[in-house]
Amino acid sequence: MTGRDILSDAGLWRDAAYVNGAWVSDGKAGTMDLCNPATGATLATLPQLDAGQVRDAVEVAEAAFGPWRLRPAKDRAKLLRRWFDLMTAHADDLARLIVLEEGKPFAEAKGEVAYAASFVEWFAEEAKRIRGDVMAAPEAGRRIVVLKEPVGVCAAITPWNFPAAMITRKAAPALAAGCTMVVKPAGQTPLTALALAELAHRAGIPAGVFNVVLGRASVVGGELTANPKVRKITFTGSTEVGRLLLEQSAATIKKASMELGGNAPLLVFDDADLETAVDGFIATKYRNTGQACISANRAYVQAGIHDAFVALLAEKVGALKVGEGFEDGVQQGPLIDAAAVEKVKDHIADAVAHGAQVVCGGATHNRGPLFFQPTVLSGVTQAMKITREETFGPIAPVVKFETEAEAVAMANDTEFGLAAYLFARDGARLWRVSAALEAGMIGVNTGLISNEVAPFGGIKQSGIGREGSVYGIDEFMEQKYLAWAGAGEAKLV
């Protein structure tokens, strides 16, 4: 089974854009075939909207904004809760779609669906907690009143590697705040986005409030960034594309949040628990076959524990099961496309040419052209591509260090600052190194840091703003200040 017939609810298989509560199958810019990365089989042929059709979606979202923002927050919360309930009820089908178009193992896809749904649940609750403030003014008889209001029509451009979670992490707070949204999912993984739109429709979210457009990134992105009716742009993807979107949005001064590239370091000190550190590295490095922005891209291991760490890491990595996502026990799926495989090969070749050793793996896997062996490299240095660039693949490079200061300097020697990880037992060291690391998120003795309660985001060239948490909804709000005279007069009437 390769398509609609694999779903328990065939109504979740959608192969058209979703605009104003209707399915748009006529793409004026043609069509695009969608393929399964594990098998190469064609999954669907999807319409590609042109700029005019995207503009129409923005017009629809603007028309829906007025009524949606005026609905009581409690009503918006109820609709989001229904969306959450439907996502939870259809978790297996959503996971199947993720496996088909993205390639990750089914168990991991189920985990992503739960993660995606958690943002809808969280922001359904936060919708009712939006509040402003009242402050005393410098002058007698005045008050300062601060209101929070929805920013307006929002555009979300999302990546292929987490096709459910990267949509709900943006759409849920936007809708909770009273904004409307136009989503442009990645061309490699649109089916999950369209299934989410179907469930939003069933939940009763009004027409025009949540829209999904399909098309070439340059066409859709160009319209969304140039259109003055779009007041907010939110993007997850590479730093290079983030820069371009910010440049394109500058003419209309849009509010922006960007979750961009990473090059996460993982530091292991001599006093760390060896098993905990290795398992933590594997948890963050090999999640989604290494295709995650917060994956540890490079490990720095202190000399006293280095050899034992590499040996245990290679043993466990060598045992990871590679295969198609629906097979029992599979832990590593395919990479997303041929370009991803070539980048992994290039990083390994460069590292070996400069003195690194392949401890395990190091080549394509016999399962197919997009599968790659989980790999461990030792003897890695800062001069190699694999420590300078984000690999986005199942390759674990290990660098040996002597001192704490040396490790921190190497960890911070990058323009990126999304995530970092450290493993140690000494409490003072944990606080000291956490303070010194230049990253927006730090895992301390853990490789798992993502959840709906924590603020997700980076510093430096890894992004702007935060997603999730109590702070996430503010990204979709504007503050309005009222200078209120005649309040708090001393004289009573």
UniProtKB/TrEMBL annotation:
It comes from the Bacteria. Pfam families: Aldedh. The active site is at residue 259. PANTHER family: SUCCINATE-SEMIALDEHYDE DEHYDROGENASE, MITOCHONDRIAL (PTHR43353). Belongs to the aldehyde dehydrogenase family. GO terms for biological process: gamma-aminobutyric acid catabolic process. It comes from Maritimibacter alkaliphilus HTCC2654. Residues 23-481 form the Aldehyde dehydrogenase domain. Keywords: Oxidoreductase. This is Succinic semialdehyde dehydrogenase. One of its GO terms (molecular function) is succinate-semialdehyde dehydrogenase (NAD+) activity. One of its GO terms (cellular component) is cytosol.
